[in-house]
Design goal:
Elements: E1 3-4, E2 10-14, E3 26-30, H1 41-48, H2 67-121
Length: 122
């Protein structure tokens, strides 16, 4: 059964078949166009509360006694993940540019060697 946030802009839909308790799949949709996900504490908490490991599944974030603290903490975690993604993208861009420069330099060196050999043969 779907779970809609009070603002109606994020949704959690458990994906269970025939009530199987071992099925831990779910989908999450974020439809806020005017705010980044990592800036929306409630949406971050809605998603984070669905991520479980071997422990007992967490209540929805709105059912927690420490809702505000939980929402702020998970928002900070998602912001950290977002920053890591930014750093990874920046690093990837720099590595690709360096590889391209290295290939261009290698091509220029090979071309210079060919020209030098051609000039020496004349």
């Amino acid at each position: 059964c779907p779970h809609h946030a009070e603002d109606g802009r994020s949704e959690f839909v458990p994906q269970t078949e025939g009530g199987r308790e071992d099925d831990r799949s779910f989908s999450f949709r974020y439809d806020v166009k005017d705010q980044a996900f990592v800036g929306n504490s409630r949406a971050c908490a809605d998603l984070a509360s669905r991520i479980d490991g071997d422990s007992v599944p967490l209540l929805t974030s709105r059912e927690l006694a420490c809702q505000d603290s939980y929402e702020q903490a998970v928002r900070r975690q998602f912001q950290a993940m977002s920053w890591i993604n930014h750093l990874a993208g920046d690093c990837d861009e720099k590595v690709r540019a360096a590889r391209k420069e290295a290939l261009l330099a290698q091509d220029a060196r090979v071309q210079a060697e060919r020209s030098s050999k051609e000039n020496a043969a004349m």
